[in-house]
What we know:
Helix content: over 70%
Structural class: mainly alpha
Order of helices and strands: HHHHHHHHHHHH
Shape: elongated
Number of helices: 12
Largest sheet: none
Number of strands: 0
Strand content: under 5%
Amino acid sequence: xxxxxxxxxxxxxxxxxxxxxxxxxxxxxxxxxxxxxxxxxxxxxxxxxxxxxxxxxxxxxxxxxxxxxxxxxxxxxxxxxxxxxxxxxxxxxxxxxxxxxxxxxxxxxxxxxxxxxxxxxxxxxxxxxxxxxxxxxxxxxxxxxxxxxxxxxxxxxxxxxxxxxxxxxxxxxxxxxxxxxxxxxxxxxxxxxxxxxxxxxxxxxxxxxxxxxxxxxxxxxxxxxxxxxxxxxxxxxxxxxxxxxxxxxxxxxxxxxxxxxxxxxxxxxxxxxxxxxxxxxxxxxxxxxxxxxxxxxxxxxxxxxxxxxxxxxxxxxxxxxxxxxxxxxxxxxxxxxxxxxxxxxxxxxxxxxxxxxxxxxxxxxxxxxxx
Length: 371
């Protein structure tokens, strides 16, 4: 009887464990589906967290002058938002002026195309499309007069993007204000050992993510300033627009410089061959300086990820979430590395081994990579 009872207990225990495993798998699957379904909101929250981490040192600096944390946070975040809006204005203003100028020139261009006069008409005759223009003049006139449609769509897109950025800033502001209370509750619920581990993870994450974002911003701003000075000196049109384009695209790790440089060089070539060659040389020289001097100096003490790990994180982020995903790929990879390193260290300590702090991945020289 005892053997039968023992076998029944073992079967019941096995069924219970199998049910728990299936329930856990189902919960994980539903959680992943929910995250993917709400990926736009999740992305905004991640961006808000990154913004809060980046602006946290400035908030702490003002906090030292006996300002309330909420007041210091509002001052810093409003200042950062104003800087962003100024950058948007500097980019969109020249484009708006160019659009207004084009709309004023549109009737004259249509007339030149139909009559074959003026510079525009000469280009049409040179490329032997004058007969096509004459045969389809009414259609071309209709299409050109409706050219304001894409401009309206672009304006709506810009306004929508600005509204989303403002929302992210507001969310990050509340995160910054409430973060100490939230972390205080978490630390109280955790045991002494876990509390120390959580504090260590938080410290490393702040250092890694803040260092990466600020370092990336600094190198991108330097790239934009260098390109702006070069284009302004060469007389290339829209230097501020192209400089901001370079600064934004240069934020992409590894490939940002190339993606930013090709269109800029081509635009400079349209102005003059000499300008295109000079801009190309400037891009090549600057990329070498950024890759071998600026990036190692700025980021070597903050984010220290293996090059392959960086490339994988950028590719996965870009495939899942596009440009924004490529930007946040490295912070997410750094988070995985920090948390994974802490878990690995805790497991080693449980086995009686005192691991070197943070040794989880390997750097390009074959040694252990310190977090």
